[in-house]
Every structure is written in C-alpha cells, then in structure tokens.
Amino acid sequence: MRKPILSFKLPRGRLIAGAAVALLLAGGLFWKGQPRQSGGPLAVVSAMAGHQEKSLQQRVEILAGQYDAEPIDARNDRVWKGIPALNGLKIDVAATVKQNEKNPDGRLQLVAKQIPPKVTLDDLGAVPIYRGNPEKKQMALMINVAWGTEYIEDMLKTLDECGVKATFFLDGSWTADNPSVAKEIVARGHELGNHAYTHPDMSKLGAAAQQSQIARTNQAIQKATGITPRLFAPPSGAYNDTTVKTAHGQKMRTVLWTLDTVDWKKPPAATITSRVLNKAENGAMVLMHPTEPTRDALRTLVQGLQKKGYALVTVSQLLDPERPLPAP
Q1: What does the record list as GO biological process (predicted)?
Q2: Cys-Cys with 182: which of 94, 135, 224, 321 at CB 3.0–4.6 Å?
C-alpha cells in the first residue's frame, strides 16, 4: 500500500550538509512504492526541496549520498541458515535533476536503480529460511492454519483495516474442508503457503511420504483458489534435510520463523503482543495461528509494529532482494 506524500517546511538559513541530510530524513523523504523489476529506473522518493540557497544539483546529491547503498549477497548463515540478498540502490543524479528542472511544487522526484547482488537465495539451493535480510526495515506475519475457521474473518478484517498483507500457510486437509475460506483469504490479497496435508512431523516421514504431504496440499490449494504455493512451512517447525530438498524439488522454499507468539497455548492477548513488540527486528517473520487471543491481540500488535517503523509485508516480499527506501 502506498504511503501518502506529506508536506513540511525546512528552516531557512545555511546549514552544513550533515544537518541538511538529517532534516531531510526527519521530515521529508517518503517512499512512493517499490519497483516491480530490479535494475530499472523509477521515481521512488518525494521530498520537499528546501534550502533555496542550494542548487537543485546539490540537493539531489545530498539525498543520493544518504540513499546510495551497495548490494548484499545472500548467504548460508551458521545459525539462521539462508539469509536473503538485498539489492543495492543508486540514485541517478543527472536523471533526477532533469526530471525536476520544471517541478513547480518544490518536491523532488528521485530516480533510482536497484542494483542486483551477485548471490541470491536461488544460488544457495535447498536451505531453510528463518528470516529476511537484517538490513530490511520490514517484517512478515505468517499465519499457520490447520484447524478452525471462527477467528479468521475477524483477523482478515483487522488486517484490511490496518492495510497489511500476511502469508497464510494452509493445511491441505483444512483447505479441502474449507475451500471458500481459503478463497476469501486470497480475495483479500493475502499470500498462501503450504503447511502439509495432515500436520505431521515431517522429520519422521520418509522421502515419498514427505513428497505426498507437500504435493497433495498444493493440489488442494490449487483446486480451491487457483494458486500453487511457492513457500512451505513444516508443521511445528519439524523438518530434516530431506524435507528441505523435497520442497526445493517442487520449486518451493522451506520457511520457519524468527519470532514465535506461542499462541497455540492460548496466552492472554497482551502476552502475545509483548512477545512480538519486545523482540521486533528487521527481517523478522512472526509465527501465529487463528486463535482467540491472536485475534484479540492482532490490531495492537500490528499498530505497534507500524509505530516502530516496520513495513508489514508478505513472506515472499520479505525474502525478495528488492531494497525498500527508509520509512519516514
């Protein structure tokens, strides 16, 4: 969802470059949306010009100095396993100056390119993933669904009202029993993932049984919604190398979680909220389920994360190498 462009006035007078950057960041840089394809030019930022004593070229160079960043390669971390890559960002100063030469309202529309890394998650092969890139000011809500429907509608309403898209990992047998609910989740714009068919301990199954669990669930989800998931969340986080390789063989990534609400134990809503807000961090994936306390905690949790400056995105968006611009 696009953020509104807000207006502000910078103080007049001469300021050193460092103070100029700080003021611009504090009051006037607003993300207008991420580009669809890496490497292509696109206007990404709107900022009030300010500092009339500085030339347009100088103002753009100030912003470029703050926003330019080198790409970060994906890597296989000893603890966190697969860590996604992050594109670099390069402000095209000349193109930005040209685009803003006749800009009447004082806003700067910056033109930038995403610079792809040399190594991506695809290059790492079959690795489990527990988090997004720690340089990304984003988090993802992953909602595992294997039982019940009574709290899902309320959760969907809250997510709608907060402007947030989540990733729902659906159990195959649940999907077969509740195709209309699965379809509604998609209609609300959320992402679907695979959560196996009968909620088994995947680490205790042979390769053929694991293959069947994943394939049958994809078939159930595809039949209900027309979507074939590309993410697999093993039930209870139980997996082995065969699990990851089996999912990879079906062109799926195995994802776990960074923060666990432990909501299946039905703690008070306030406990769920504090577990997440107290440990919120860049790139975190938050595990939850459609339970009563989660329903009750969701609005406060989401708004608390947004207040901390985190953009809440789907798991696929979190793992994508696209580099978002800092939130205002």
Answers
A1: carbohydrate metabolic process
A2: 224
